[in-house]
Write a structure and sequence with these properties.
By secondary structure, this protein is mainly α. The chain has six helices and two strands; from the N terminus they run αββααααα. Strand 1 and strand 2 form a beta hairpin. The radius of gyration is 35 Å and the shape is elongated. This is Sigma-70 family RNA polymerase sigma factor. GO terms for molecular function: DNA binding; sigma factor activity. It holds the Pfam family Sigma70_r4. It comes from Anaerotruncus colihominis.
Length: about 140
């Protein structure tokens, strides 16, 4: 009696890898071609629905993905205004007296509290608070003019 040969056991499964065919197991073969078919199905649906991919808009100079707006990025106008304001602030700070400029730097650039600034300068906290308010008034006047 002849033994019946199972065709599934004798079939050789191969997939393309870097322009050559590589022998793989049946499971790997099915997973590979199942995924390939899934991708083709998605492309067919996109074609039917008229979906346009940003990569379809690629040119030699730009990528289509660069056309996607970055909603988290600050607006160019905001950056420009901030830059101008910082420059005006730097200019105004150079016109303040040295003591006021040092106090502003301690409190706003170094992040020290009024109490820490008072300890550093050896002055009462109320004096530091008063000097800070006066320095900010001078700075405001310089920025407005």
């Amino acid at each position: 009696m002849k033994e019946k040969i199972n065709r599934k056991e004798t079939k050789i499964y191969t997939i393309p890898v870097e322009r050559t065919r590589v022998q793989v197991t049946r499971e790997v073969y099915q997973a590979y071609y199942g995924f390939e078919r899934h991708l083709r199905t998605l492309e067919e649906k996109d074609t039917r629905n008229g979906t346009v991919r940003y990569s379809d808009l690629d040119t030699e100079e730009t990528l289509g993905e660069e056309m996607i707006p970055d909603l988290d990025a600050p607006a160019v106008e905001t950056d420009a205004v901030t830059h101008v304001m910082r420059e005006a602030l730097r200019e105004a700070l150079t016109q303040l007296p040295e003591a006021d400029c040092c106090l502003i730097q301690m409190l706003f650039y170094e992040g020290k509290t009024i109490r820490q600034a008072a300890q550093t300068l050896g002055l009462p906290t109320m004096t530091i608070h008063y000097r800070k308010e006066q320095a900010l008034k001078k700075l405001r006047k310089l920025l407005e003019s």
